[in-house]
Design brief:
The chain has about 100 residues and is of the alpha+beta class. The chain is built from three helices and three strands; from the N terminus they run H-E-H-H-E-E. The chain has a three-stranded antiparallel β-sheet with strand order 1-3-2. It is elongated, with a radius of gyration of 16 Å.
Length: about 100
């Protein structure tokens, strides 16, 4: 069975949207971590979704969560630290250093 032109166009459009949102997701921690030592994951996620929706008209929590997971993976430029602050567990995104590399 052949794929229709509209489904190919749709897949291509989805890839473009994903790539645009990934670029936004990648830039956000760079800008914010320069201003702060680390950023709160739970505040960062909806902020990036908002920026993506504002700039591209698209962006879902799941999509951005997946992009952040990639950007904080073992070989990625950021890391996710779990800390306790005010008796609450928090996830903080920080820039990975040479000491963090495996």
């Amino acid at each position: 069975m052949r794929e229709s032109k509209s489904s190919k166009k749709s897949a291509s459009s989805e890839i473009e949207i994903s790539n645009a949102c990934y670029s936004i997701t990648e830039k956000y921690p760079i800008d914010e971590i320069l201003a702060h030592a680390g950023i709160d994951y739970n505040k960062t996620l909806p902020n990036i979704v908002y920026i993506c929706k504002n700039k591209t008209g698209h962006g879902s929590i799941n999509q951005i969560r997946n992009h952040l997971e990639v950007l904080t993976s073992e070989k990625a430029p950021f890391k996710m630290d779990k800390i306790v602050m005010d008796n609450k567990k928090k996830k903080i995104i920080r820039k990975r250093t040479e000491d963090d590399s495996s």
